[in-house]
Amino acid sequence: MLVHICCSVDSHYFLQELQKAYPKEKLVGFFYDPNIHPYSEYELRFLDVKRSCEKLGVKLYKGEYEYEKWLNAVRGYEDEPEKGARCEICFNFRMGGSVEFAKKLGEKRLTTTLLTSPKKDLEQLKNALQKECEPYGIEFLAPDFRKNGGTQRQFALAKQSQLYHQNYCGCIYGLKKQKQSKAFIDELMSPITRQILPASIEERIRLYKRVKVLEKRGISFTLRREKFLNYRLLSAVLKRDKRVIKSHILFYSHFKNALSKFSLSEHCKGIFQSMKDEICLWDFEYLNAKCKHKFKNFDDFLRRPLSIKQEIALRQKHFAPYNLSPIIVIESLEKGTYELVARSEIYFDSKESIEKGED
């Protein structure tokens, strides 16, 4: 039997219930979810699905990430609500791809872990399975493992197994609706510096890769969720005498005004503190000395900056704890009129961390 898999929280419970209901069936997993956006989230979910399947002894295949095809399929239905027409098209698309893969493998039966998701419409899923399976002579199964407390057991099992629990269904349109009250969508932010931001998808990928290593080594651990004050730089442009100059803004540099102007009357070395908006300029040599001359030149620093953790440590050495003054690194502090246009957000957030068990 081929089992289309959407995520580990749904699949871990669903696969075990299938094994009980069909003990003679060999289950084969198929992760085919081109609706998931961004691609990093797709990779994160596959990473944890693979971890789950390895625990359960289920062979897993990874489908193609046909995101553009999926976008074309749901075009015109972007504003549909959850469980609306867009979801119906999405299910047809994913079940259609799963049927084709089942035929390729020679599997005679197909089902999907989406059936156990409390956010999905069972009738829509049954209709999608029937519509896509019948023309190919594939038998479809649509068991309802939610009833009689199944959903509660599902989430309890996911918590016990310390699986990745995503905070949105997957597609960009559902995510947009969910985050419409926020000034930005955190999941869609990835800095050009390639730094790993706190509570980002990339940080979660790193975390769950570490989880997999610990499990393989038999090291006990617990995933703990902690609240903290997060930060995102939304945009920033620094000009000197009306010309844009290269710059790097350190983490937790918060801008209370969208536009700031100040002047340097002469060349200076090291550091310049503007009394207006508490803006602090560092030249590259000043920063590089603090980093024990780690970087060859300014461009080298821009290409491979410090990690966020290192930036926070550097800030705390220079300022008192909880300081949010903007720190902007530029190549040299030259005289002129400076103009900074910047937007940032400080907000409450939560993230998971690993706590190892006692030996």
In short:
The chain is an alpha/beta fold and 359 residues long. It has helices spanning 8-21, 39-56, 67-73, 85-105, 122-133, 150-160, 172-178, 201-217, 284-290, 298-303, 308-318, and strands spanning 2-5, 28-31, 59-62, 109-112, 139-140, 221-240, 243-244, 248-249, 259-264, 271-273, 280-283, 327-330, 336-356.
Structural class: alpha/beta
The secondary-structure element order is: EHEHEHHEHEHHHEEEEEEHHHEE
Strand tally is 13
Strand proportion, as a percent range, falls in 15-25%
Major β-sheet strand ordering? 3-2-1-4-5
In angstroms, what is the radius of gyration? 25 Å
> Can you tell me the overall shape?
elongated
Largest sheet: 5 strands, parallel
How many helices in DSSP terms? Answer: 11
Low-pLDDT runs: none
Helix content: 25-40%
Distance between the termini: 42 Å
What is the residue-averaged pLDDT? 95
